[in-house]
Design brief:
Shape: globular
Largest sheet: 8 strands, mixed
Strand content: 15-25%
Distance between the termini: 74 Å
Number of helices: 9
Strand order of the largest sheet: 1-2-4-3-5-6-7-8
Length: 264
């Protein structure tokens, strides 16, 4: 005899399997929407070879007398052309910046995926170490929104001078579901933060309309290494720097300078 409980369980199972199928088929398209290139090839743009064979567009902005490098991973709705004014602001404040695009973004080849994004930041890190001559103790990883995914992945592999996570989620799917409901969730930052050994600065708007503020609170609680936070009251996902103003810059630059001092 088929009971009401059995029917309910079967219905929930169908929904769960349907969600898994949909997420498996379309998650990359949702995570990495098509963003038309915002820049053209110039002398400032060069290409890195990733381990999966893609040509990854990158740019390097050296700051005078700087011994620190900001390795910047951008959000999913932008490329390194969109981020240039921010990179230049960091450069003017004494931080060199290396920024790269994901596969399929800007002038990079391929199509973005979790694996491809990891390969991209790995290629950027190799370039920072090999061609630019920076040690890991001089590199600060900056992950903005979806860029927190490759940043946390890279930070789990190596100890860096510091990590800055800006608008970071606990994991990609939990932005929609609120909790982990599939074993193959993408960019599981919450899991990785437990094992990251580098100092971390967490930045988040309390009214974030893309990545809820609860993600920042859970991420902060998970961090076991030295940590700081900048909660920006009333800020959403993309207006936090404007709303915070000098408070953003004072916090970030104080954090980076303290990292430099602790390394000496």
């Amino acid at each position: 005899m088929i009971t009401k409980a059995f029917i309910t369980l079967a219905f929930l199972l169908i929904i769960y399997l349907g969600f898994n199928s949909y997420a498996f088929a379309f998650s990359d398209r949702i995570l990495f929407p098509h963003v038309p290139p915002s820049y053209v090839k110039t002398e400032a743009i060069f290409f890195l070879q990733s381990r999966d064979g893609e040509q990854i567009a990158a740019t390097y902005l050296p700051a005078k007398h700087s011994e620190q490098l900001l390795l910047y991973s951008h959000g999913n709705g932008e490329d390194i052309g969109h981020g240039l004014p921010l990179y230049q602001a960091f450069q003017s404040k004494g931080l060199s910046v290396l920024a790269y695009d994901y596969p399929g973004y800007g002038l990079s080849s391929g199509r973005a995926s979790e694996k491809g994004v990891y390969a991209s930041i790995e290629a950027a890190y190799r370039y920072a170490r090999g061609e630019l001559g920076y040690d890991a103790s001089q590199i600060i990883l900056y992950g903005r929104s979806v860029g927190s995914g490759p940043t946390c992945w890279m930070a789990e592999q190596e100890t860096f001078a510091g990590i800055i996570l800006d608008g970071a989620f606990t994991s990609a799917f939990r932005v929609v579901t609120g909790r982990k409901i599939v074993p193959w969730d993408k960019f599981d930052n919450l899991k990785r933060l437990h094992s990251i050994r580098s100092p971390v600065l967490l930045i988040h708007g309390t009214k974030d309309n893309v990545v809820p503020f609860s993600h920042a609170q859970k991420n902060y609680a998970a961090i076991q290494s030295p940590k700081q936070k900048l909660w920006i009251e009333g800020a959403k996902h993309n207006d936090h720097i404007r709303i915070a103003g000098e408070r953003y810059w004072n916090t970030v630059m104080t954090f980076t300078k303290a990292l430099k001092a602790s390394d000496q």
